[in-house]
Design a protein that fits this description.
By secondary structure, this protein is an alpha+beta fold. It has 16 helices and 18 strands. It has a six-stranded mixed sheet. The protein has a four-stranded antiparallel sheet with strand order 11-13-9-14, with helices on one face. 45% of the residues are buried.
């Protein structure tokens, strides 16, 4: 297949996945990933491939393809994408978020970078391998899973717990990495070797009901929840400069003052202001547990002072800040007086996970990257959100987040698109990622 045909094919598949509108709002009845499983199953049905689909809840389907290796002693490599996307507010977009339009070399739509671009490019790479009569020594697995955007309950987690023999592997690649850091000199491409944990909490504030016309000295639960949300949002968790962070900074080839500033707790916050363009938020989140109050529910009627309000907080934890540490920091953020009115109604904990850097898969990804992006260097980094890789790392799998991105979209703009407006991916990034997966499979599996 010629490069132009490759680009057109992955573009077309991505557009179809976007148009399937597999929107996951966190409820079991949402997602409808079966639409994209139908599409991918038809696209990938080739002789010699084992295709299985799973649907633990109606509509919440996942697809797993296996190309068996000839050598049972050789390692298994797993390419994993997800097919669900987060909800969208269309009024904030310049173009229809589910039209999948190709505009000036960019595919627009919800999921274009999270992560239908990787799901589609992996699928095209696997099809190209099968079309070439690929006979690997090691087994190749491709999966397109449901429910990643709601913690993987009906997708990767379900597969690991209920169909492990079908998804078993020693090495895995999923989202996200490869965005070019805005630095002078050598192109630095991060491979996500670890990811932060999550500790979502639901907090309830108690108040006293009353008439809305008498707010003076009222005990309004919503007002207290608003104050709590403000304090949590302003809270700065303790700095955690891990060995992985220090190794990352050392490999960036920064000037000595910046390098020392970003690895010293006493100077870190000052040095952060001089971080490469678009990287400050990423660097902050990679070195601290973060708190983002994102949902509040309160009140029954406009003229009734609410006696109860609930605040949902997205907490992302660095290693060592799990469990009691999160609750301790929430209390510090609130202050003792306000905390007396707070009840922790619900919390869900997923600890941080990490894979080793020195591995055959790291070496293969690096070698292929250097061929596709001459003069580049791969660097290890910490993914600040959560991916389905965590379920596999807990099984002992070496798992990375990666992909290849062109320099067309800046780092700052790229990160704003995740769960944001005007999400899109350029065709050169789609081409590079597709070639990355194909060449990595050939090199790694033999």
């Amino acid at each position: 297949m010629a490069p132009a045909d490759l680009t057109g094919e992955v573009t077309d598949l991505l557009q179809q996945l976007i148009r399937n509108r597999c929107v996951n709002d966190g409820t079991p009845a949402s997602g409808h990933e079966v639409r994209s499983v139908d599409l991918l199953e038809s696209y990938l049905r080739f002789p010699g491939a084992e295709l299985k689909r799973y649907e633990p809840v109606p509509g919440r389907a996942s697809l797993v393809l296996r190309i068996p290796g000839s050598d049972p002693r050789a390692p298994t490599l797993h390419f994993m994408g997800h097919t669900d996307v987060v909800p969208v507010t269309p009024s904030g977009w310049r173009h229809d978020p589910f039209a999948g339009e190709l505009i000036d070399g960019e595919v627009w739509g919800r999921g274009a970078v999270d992560m239908l671009d990787i799901t589609s490019s992996m699928a095209v790479a696997v099809r190209r391998l099968m079309e070439s009569d690929f006979r690997p020594k090691g087994t190749l697995v491709y999966s397109a899973v449901a429910d990643e955007e709601a913690m993987g309950t009906f997708g990767a987690q379900w597969l690991v717990e209920n169909a492990w023999n079908d998804v078993r592997c020693e090495y895995l690649v999923t989202e996200f990495g490869g965005a070019r850091l805005p630095l002078r000199g050598t192109i630095k491409l991060p491979i996500m070797t670890s990811e932060k944990g999550s500790h979502w909490v639901r907090l309830r504030m108690r108040g006293t009901p009353g008439h809305g016309s008498l707010p003076y000295q009222s005990d309004n639960a919503l007002v207290k929840a608003a104050e709590l949300a403000t304090r949590i949002a302003r809270y700065k968790a303790p700095l955690r400069l891990s060995d992985l962070w220090k190794r990352f900074i050392e490999r960036l080839e920064l000037a000595a003052p910046a390098r020392l500033g970003l690895t010293n707790p006493a100077t870190f916050d000052i040095a952060l202001k001089g971080a490469p363009e678009g990287a400050a938020g990423l660097f902050y989140s990679a070195t601290r547990t973060t708190f983002s109050p994102n949902v509040v529910q309160a009140g029954v009627k406009t003229n009734v002072i609410p006696d109860s309000a609930e605040l949902y907080v997205d907490v992302r934890t660095v290693a060592g800040d799990e469990g009691p540490e999160v609750r301790k920091m929430l209390r510090e953020a609130a202050g003792d007086q306000l905390w007396r009115d707070v009840e922790i109604v619900d919390e869900g904990e997923n600890p941080a996970t990490q894979s080793p850097i020195g591995s055959p898969l790291w070496d293969a990804l690096t070698r292929v990257t250097q061929r596709l992006v001459p003069g580049s260097e791969t660097v290890p980094f910490i993914f600040v959100a959560a991916t389905d890789a965590r379920f596999f790392r807990r099984k002992g799998v070496t798992a990375y987040g990666y992909g290849l991105r062109s320099d067309r979209i800046s780092l700052r703009e790229f990160f704003r698109m995740f769960h944001g407006n005007d999400e899109r991916i350029d065709q050169e990034s789609l081409r590079l990622s597709t070639l990355l997966w194909e060449e990595t499979a050939r090199l790694f599996l033999g």
